[in-house]
Amino acid sequence: MMHDKAMKDERRTDELWRWTAGELAQGIRTKAISSREAVMNCLNRIYKVNPHVNAIAEVLAEDALQAADMADYAVFKGEELGPLHGVPIASKINSNQAGLATTDGVVAAKDNIANTDSPSIANLRKAGAVFVGRSNVPSFSLRWFSNNDLHGKTLNPWDSSRTPGGSSGGASAAVASGMVPFAQGNDIGGSIRYPAYACGIPGIRPTIGRVPTWIGTDDVDPTLAVQLMIAEGPLARSVGDLRLGLSVMSALDPRDPIQSPAPITGETLQRPIRVGLLRDVGVVKPEPAVNQALDDAASYLSDAGYIVEEVELPLFAEAYKLWYLLALEDLISLKPLIEQYGDEGAKINFKYNCEIAEKWWGKPSLEKYKQGYARRHTLIMQLQQFLEKYPVLLLPISSEQAFKQDADIESIENNRRLLDAQWSMMAIPVLSFPAMSVPISVFEGLPTGVQLLGRRFREDTLFDAAEAIEARANIPTPINPSFD
């Protein structure tokens, strides 16, 4: 019996890349494993899998091993350890990390070396995390496909013909295929939630002001949409790791003028908790696989004691189109840069997005822009009142499973179809409530999942509901690429 246990432990240690971030942190803290073992295990997994998936744009092997050795020495000396001490993770290549290039998938930015860490990177570093690589993004981080001329195309480990999502597509593909247990991402139009969905892992877009966010340099003034809609958050293979990651990433940073010191856990909600099930807001009907995922999630929540009731909330359709007035108008300032330095996919997608938005809103004007932000306030108020009765909302991430690669640039008609399928991806940043992607099962070889939305600064209620779903879901990550 002892021999069998030793063999099991040895085999388990040989596959540290399968462990969650929480398991690795506990193992390192208790000296059951070393940080060097964990980091080396993940690096070996990167060397094996990344050539097939291209999720990690830059491998940081030398720095990571040095950091791992320092982490192990700190354990040996009995120093105070952070929650992610010695754990290998990935950072997104559109986020500043001191001494490394913030390329954002743009060839012209390949030597854009950052002097300081962005707040989320700094908080992860303070928590003891070891950065083993930088994850890929689309050019300018503006597509749901993580392809660019500088770092190449990231593939979905479930199916190479499908997108891994964007802009955190490299992050989601790396986590899903076992290269890292945890990755940092950001989201202004689905860039955490959609990649997590496409690759079958959980990911959360927190409340605006929960995680400190800082874009660019001290001499750059972020646009209003960036200030009010972009959120930093984690992607992982377990809801527990999202809890851990969010608590770490939420440490206060003076560079963010709107960050709030709200508690991670709020007051206990009155039970039974009501969940509103929202399938269709009048934009496009979900495919059968998406409807089945919603039905399964509703069943799991009901079995866990929640009361799930179908609801209607047409305000989401309005908020979806509002994104293309408020956020896209702010992004117009990037148009000259995209036209000069963007790859072909970025140029075509942005052109189509602008043409579709103009059909909805006409030529942008200051008056329309002001009216749009006034309307945003009213929609937020309406949703906030709705959440008094239904503290959790269950809804689709997309009306379809993961898109075929480059589907957004096939034609303007196809681009519009994708925009409609992603109505919740755009509506939620406008409304600025927390939302997360929760995987459910595999349908015809591709993962399916659902989205949970909750009250502001009540990510804890989403984690609780997500764990009830996770306990019944059947997503076998980490996976080996199906085309390996």
UniProtKB/TrEMBL annotation:
Segments traversing the membrane: none
Residues in Amidase domain copies: 37-462
Record protein name field: Amidase
SUPFAM superfamilies in UniProt: Amidase signature (AS) enzymes
Lineage: Bacteria, Bacillati, Bacillota, Bacilli, Bacillales
Domain of life: Bacteria
Species of origin: Siminovitchia terrae
InterPro entries (alphabetical): Amidase, Amidase_CS, Amidase_dom, AS_sf
Similarity remark: Belongs to the amidase family.
PROSITE patterns linked: AMIDASES
